[in-house]
C-alpha cells in the first residue's frame, strides 16, 4: 500500500502550513486565533483575507493542496486495504 505513506507525507505538510497560519492568527489577536482554531472553514477565510506573510502564496497553496491530496491518498489507501481484506482465500485453505 504505497499510498498511505504519501498520505502521511502530505498530512505533515498540511499540518506545518496550518500551524503557521494558526501561529500568525494568534499573534494578530487571541480572538482571531480562537476563531481560526474552532470554526471549521474560517482558516481558509483567514488565509485568503487577513494572512500577511512573505511566503503567503506558498503556505496557502501548500495547505489547500496537501489537505486535498491527504484526503485522496488516504481514501485510496484505505480502499486498497479493504479490497485486499475482502478477498476470499483460494480453495483448499
Structure in words:
The chain is mainly alpha-helical and 93 residues long. 80% of the residues lie in helices and 0% in strands. It is built from 4 helices and no strands. It has helices at residues 3-28, 30-38, 42-49, 56-86. Helix 1 (3-28) packs antiparallel against helix 2 and helix 1 packs antiparallel against helix 4 (56-86). The radius of gyration is 18 Å and the shape is elongated. The two termini are 24 Å apart. The mean pLDDT is 91.
Largest sheet: none
> What shape does the CA trace take?
elongated
| Beta-strand share of residues | under 5%
Overall structural class, as computed from helix and strand content, comes to mainly alpha
Chain-averaged pLDDT = 91
Q: What is the count of helical runs?
A: 4
What are the low-pLDDT stretches, counting only 5+ consecutive residues below 50? none
Span between N and C termini?
24 Å
> In sequence order, what are the helices and strands, one letter per element?
HHHH
Report the C-alpha radius of gyration, rounded.
18 Å
Helix share, percent: over 70%
- How many strands? 0
Strand and helix layout:
Blueprint: H1 3-28, H2 30-38, H3 42-49, H4 56-86
Helix pairs in contact: 1-2, 1-4
Write out key terms for the chains shown.
mainly alpha; 0% strand; 93 residues; 4 helices
